[in-house]
Task: structure prediction
Amino acid sequence: MWLIIVASAAVVAAVLVLVIIEYTHIDIRGKYVCITGCDTGFGNLLARSLDKHRGCHVIAACLTEEGMTKLKSVTSSRLTAIQLNVNSSESIRRARDKIQDIIPTGEGLWGLVNNAGIICPMGPFHWLTRDDLTNVLNVNLLGAIEMTNMLYPLLRTAKGRVVNVSSAVALFPTAGTIYSVSKAGIEAFSDNIRCSMKASGVSVHIIEPGAFKGTFSDVDAMKRRMDTVWERLPQAEKDDIGGDITLEAMKLLISDALRMSSPHLTTVTNAMEHALSARFPWRRYLPGLDAKFFYKPISLLPAFIADNVYNLMFTRMIDNKKKLVMKEREKHKTT
Result:
């Protein structure tokens, strides 16, 4: 009897602690938050939400003037849009100078959300050139590092928060090739600065989303990226993996994965807002069912088990798609 009472009390206490952690917020109205990658997707949605619902002074960094104009047309005067290319150190320095001018002396920067990212090109590592690799790493990893370094004095003044957007594929880097490597780098960078910045009162939080519809969910664009890489391969390489049939099968897999992506982008932006406004923010967030129930669990398995599970799944899926491609070709031959 006593065991049941103690166990019940422990469960109730645990639930209360989780409720306190999840729902106790601080007022961030009037605080300054900088978000990169605000032209579309998560960054755009977060900028609008922080402006409308949280009353923040949002500094929205967009790659294009068109993105700046569109965002300013649907937000209040609290939001300031600036142009930023995180692939350029000079652009980052100019953005830093503008941000320093925007924020009143002594106020500091409450939040930096490193959201800007790209996913192209597509294909295994040995299909990619050095330029392919460095382009993704420069934007997704080095851009986030340089933005954080440049704005750290302002973050330190406010004892603010850094929110880095990683990915569920960083937990088990099997998909997206160089994209997953760049996001695994974000994980390591975030873990490092979380420790080093703690003494100055700056906290660091990682968002690890699963697959969501948005900038990366354009099926035709993904296929074109794969075609670009495929066309420059030697014929021997194409033949080695099964030729055009395998290419078409891979495209079908990508199409299926993108179509199954969640349309609920607010799942991710809600996690970002929690990291910025919760009194007790989590160190890591896993938005998306695939992040919670596939990538995280498989990342905890022993490597030999995880590798075999993934290889079995991928081999079966690609074989099924090859059969569909061949069946479709046979159908066209007979018509």
